Each structure stands twice: as structure tokens, then as C-alpha cells.
Amino acid sequence: MFAEGCPSSAVPIRIGEKWAGMVLVCLADGPRRFSELKVPLRGVTPKVLTETLRALERDGMITRTAYDEMPPRVEYALTDLGRSLFAMMHACREWAEANLPDVLAAREAYLDAQAEARTRDAG
């Protein structure tokens, strides 16, 4: 699993990449411009959105089409490869919905234990 050359290091959508899955979902109904993506993706900085779009394009998940117009227009669209991730993303959402209460309870228990340990160590 951790061997050099393991394909896991080349996986295009990593669990911790918050914006990649959201960008793909935003493109599900058709191409969008950069400014159109920023609306539903409140909170993403232009820099992070640019990096995410470039990574998704690099990995073949989306296409970037620049139109020779004034002013210039660029649209991003899903590829078949990008669309193929939706079944897996749906399964992850179902798992999260079913297990979110347990995850939140575990986080709270962890924080309570950490606070108790700090109190004990301070006293």
C-alpha cells in the first residue's frame, strides 16, 4: 500500500480535497464560467478555485474551453470521466448521512476527553 509507485498517490480525487467534488457537482447540469462557479461555492477563494479547476482539468475530469471573443469567455465542463465519479460520490454522501451522528458524537467525546486531560494536567 505504501510502496513506491503505488497507484494511490495518483488518485485524482482525494478524500480531503474539499472543493473538487463540489466543482464536479456544480458542473453536472452543464458548462459554467468561473464567475458562475463562485456563486454556489461561497467561501472558495479565487486562487483555490483556480487550483482546483486546473487539477481537475489535468486529471481529465473537466475540460476548459476558451472562446475567442471580446471580452474573453472561458467555460468549464464535465468529461465522461468526471461524470463517472458521481456514483462513488453518491455512495459517500449516503454513508455520511447514515453515519454523521456517530462521527459528531465521536468528535464531541474526543474534545471532552481532551478538555478533561488538560484540566487534570493543569491541576
UniProtKB/TrEMBL annotation:
Domain of life from the UniProt record: Bacteria
Protein keywords: DNA-binding, Transcription, Transcription regulation
Span of domain HTH hxlR-type: 6-104
Single GO term (MF): DNA binding
InterPro entries, per the entry: HTH_HxlR, WH-like_DNA-bd_sf, WH_DNA-bd_sf
Pfam families: HxlR
Protein name: Helix-turn-helix transcriptional regulator
Higher taxonomy: Bacteria, Bacillati, Actinomycetota, Actinomycetes, Kitasatosporales
